Amino acid sequence: MTDAFDHAARLLADAPRILVFTGAGISTESGIPDFRGPDGLWTKVDPDDFTIQRYRANREVRVARWKMHQQGALWGARSSVRPNRAHEAVVELWRGGRMSGCVTQNIDGLHQAAGLPDDQVAELHGNIRKVHCLGCGARWETEEVLRWVDAGEEDPSCPHCGGLVKTTTVMFGEYLPLDQVQRAERFAAEADAVLVVGSTLSVYPAAQIPLDVVRRGGPMVIVNLGPTDGDRLAAARIEGKAGDVLPRLVDAILSSS
Ligand code: APR
Fold this sequence. Notes:
Blueprint: H1 3-13, E1 18-22, H2 52-57, H3 59-70, H4 85-95, E2 99-104, H5 110-114, E3 121-123, E4 130-133, E5 139-141, H6 142-150, E6 165-167, H7 178-189, E7 193-197, H8 208-215, E8 220-224, E9 236-239, H9 242-256
Parallel strand pairs: 1-2, 1-7, 2-3, 7-8, 8-9
Antiparallel strand pairs: 4-5, 4-6
Bound molecules: adenosine-5-diphosphoribose (APR).
Adenosine-5-diphosphoribose binds next to loops.
């Protein structure tokens, strides 16, 4: 083990309740690209194509987006992505009674697919496997709406109010879901330390959540490939792949208690 690993493991072993905060980097080993890493999504597509204004105003954008979902692109409902060892390590931390909660910026639903109950996960940026109506708030599983698209409704609308429907993924220009933000804030308030995995900590207000723990004196441990905006506030940093580091780190935490 490296000094950084041992230091991080000791800090977290002393924390009864750990907030786990994850970003796109925990899912890259499941085949989902991150946004700002060397091969990130924002190096290939324009984030401006993913604003709520474009989606509302532009039928062609909506039809193209539903076609991508229908074809299993965007790593959503019809894709074959599966949790990796890092997601499974987070479940082990929860099973060991040492997690105050998991706050994720990811929309892939892989924490729940790995075994975390819904009420242990705060999805600050929504979930690509769920759809809601922008008019009345009605909700469906994405798979159900894709059956409407399969049946020929290429720009599906809400059967209750006729409003536009979209996955609950939070687009630029949209507010974060209040219930998920409140759940995340509760997890942070209950935590003695925060473990950040696979995030540049560059997007607010999500990145505020780990800082809530730091502000109360809880140590922040960062596991990431490359620098993050939170490094100068970190009590420990481990440079490495989440799938390699997390299983060993969680073992060290649980075996020390
Ligand atoms: N192990 C550890 N770190 C990794 C791995 C890995 N296997 N793969 C990538 N990383 C690192 C990248 O180097 C990068 O530093 O994870 C980090 C991911 O950072 P971002 O791509 O910025 O993703 P994230 O922090 O989740 O972005 C936040 O921005 O565009 C919005 O809504 C989007 O939720 C997203 C938000």
